[in-house]
Amino acid sequence: MEKPLVQIRNLELSAATGRGEARILRSIDLDIERGSILGIVGESGSGKSSLANAIIGLPAGNTSKLSGEIVLDGVNLLSLDESGMRALRGSRVAMVFQDPMTALNPLFSVERHLVDVIKRRFPAVSRADATGRALAALEAVGIADPGLRLASYPGDLSGGMRQRVLIAMALLAEPDLLIADEPTTALDATIEAQIVSLLSDLKARLSGSILFISHHLGLVARLCERICVMYGGTVVELGDTAAIAAAPAHPYTRALMACMIDDQVSDAPLMFIPGEVPDPVAPVQGCIFAPRCAHVVEQCLRVAPQLRDLGASRKVACHRAGEIA
Amino acid sequence: MTAILLDGVSAHYGAVKSLDDVSFAVEQGGRVGLVGESGSGKSTLCRLLVGLRLPSGGELSVFDRPVADHLRTDARQFRRNVQLIMQDAVASLSPRMRIRSLLQEVITIHSLPADETWRWIETLTARLGLPNSVFERYPHEISGGQARRLAIVRALALKPRIVVADEPTAGLDVSVQGGLLNLLIEIQRELSLTYLMISHDLRVIRRVTGRMLVMYLGQIVEDGETEALFRKPAHPYSAALLSTNAAHAPGKAGQPIILHGEIPSAINPPPGCRFHTRCPVAQTRCKTDPPSLRRLPDNRSVRCHFPYSLSFA
Ligand SMILES: Nc1ncnc2c1ncn2[C@@H]1O[C@H](COP(=O)(O)OP(=O)(O)OP(=O)(O)O)[C@@H](O)[C@H]1O
Ligand SMILES: Nc1ncnc2c1ncn2[C@@H]1O[C@H](COP(=O)(O)OP(=O)(O)OP(=O)(O)O)[C@@H](O)[C@H]1O
Ligand SMILES: [Mg+2]
Ligand SMILES: [Mg+2]
Description:
By secondary structure, chain A is an alpha/beta fold. Chain A is 33% helix and 23% strand. In chain B, strands 6-7-8-3-9-10-12-11 form an eight-stranded mixed beta sheet, with helices on both faces. A four-stranded antiparallel beta sheet of chain B has the order 2-1-4-5. Chains A and B meet through helix 3, helix 7 and helix 8 of A and helix 5, helix 6, helix 7 and helix 9 of B.
């Protein structure tokens, strides 16, 4: 098999806070195969955006530790300096950020945002050609009046339009690795479907890979071959989407899937996972999910489970996986 | 009492007609959902309701008084009674303050009883599954979903009478979302709040609201009881929108109705019915004659010459 596009090994990320050091990512091991879409799901606060930001080389300002390896085509991104990383960003690696308003510059027009991406990626492109491409990209993401919208500023756009401008920017960069952090949260189902097919096209056309972060399990199931489930800064389960959907192995994955709202209208309260996500500043002994786990035994409180093989293409970090299936 | 009343309201940003002739009323204690295409004017409507903008035309009242009146005579009380949970949660938290100070500021501004309100804030925070330690963090030290829940805590801290929630569950995983929606419903019953909730997640709308409004290009195209509307939409746009939901339902083979044709301009809306350029069942009349929002015998209002002409399996 071809080597994965990205290999993440023993990635650790901590940040300094007024309350002590926050361990945000704990020993992450993860591969992103070439020409594939990997979905990342996990509870709010589990470290999905932090992982994405680490890959694209934009960790938070208060980062106190970033160690391990993120190898893209043989190059460890963590060993690159800022200018090396900047050269990669927007060309080989691009990202659609979770929070569109903070990712767009309110003082720049939509045209400037899009044309800047094109100019950086393809310096030889003429100004007129760049504007033409920018226009086509807005059209592709379903924005009406694209010609007029080029002159708009981020503050003049609706939430969903901003999100689509970010997607257009990422598509224009034609990256090898596209990271999309909750790219469709502000979009209605029709436009969401359009964006999803754009992403699939991008993968097919450019043989690039996509890291797709989403809380929308149905969408992840449709788009991604494999999924990675995160909890408390760790990977708790990894495997083929269909296999995980059919039989989730980790107790957190199961609890998560049980919470999906189905189409039944009933007066019973909605399901949720009681308890709180772990505070990244608090020390952890044993399994990080143990305090909320329905299957906890004494061993779970003492020993942190490693991510281990469960069959040929599945990994799970649970002492009791298999036993509780 | 009528909590919210709009009559022929419009809102223009330069040449963009974000809202055009919007009329509806919400009784106190109602839970109303607002759905519609991206850019159809939902967030604009929210901004009008909480007085962040005034309408360009038409009448807008809250608790039987024009919003402009409230703002003139007692802006602070109005701002306390009518809370907006913004779509852009992270940007709505000011970056240089700890979460604790952000929340305490709300108490000070509105001169609320400090201890009692803080206990209420702690209760809300815990019920949304956030650890107490979140108070000591700065906005950049929290995740997107945590920021969204804190924006909700801040809004509910004031025990408002009307809550306008713009995509309150966007970006939240299902396990957190369930707890959040239960909480919103419980508090609504406890305080007999009036909710207007926007969501692109139709399952959320169906679970939480009793009535829903469907918007298309700055106008309300359908208004009716949520469950009845989901079962049998009258407007072709509603049918297309809801068909995507039916097609996602597990074990159902429903086909989504795909809309073709260009997405129309909000600057130059199509003549006649605004939806005719993409409507699968449009007739000649629809191209020239704009329908008005009219009441059907089944307690439904619809802006269509030929209601119930498009249905999904
Ligand atoms: N710069 C930082 N300093 C300290 N703590 C942080 C920082 N950034 C994130 N955190 C904390 O680290 C954890 C992971 O945050 P992250 O934003 O990666 O979560 P996420 O999985 O993307 O969540 P969501 O689904 O809500 O967006 C959270 O508990 C968050 O509060
Ligand atoms: N401050 C502004 N200046 C100019 N135009 C604006 C402004 N705010 C909104 N608009 C325009 O008004 C229209 C409606 O926007 P609005 O934000 O209300 O849509 P929405 O229904 O909330 O969409 P979404 O689902 O994407 O959030 C859009 O065409 C938008 O570009
Ligand atoms: Mg995130
Ligand atoms: Mg909006």
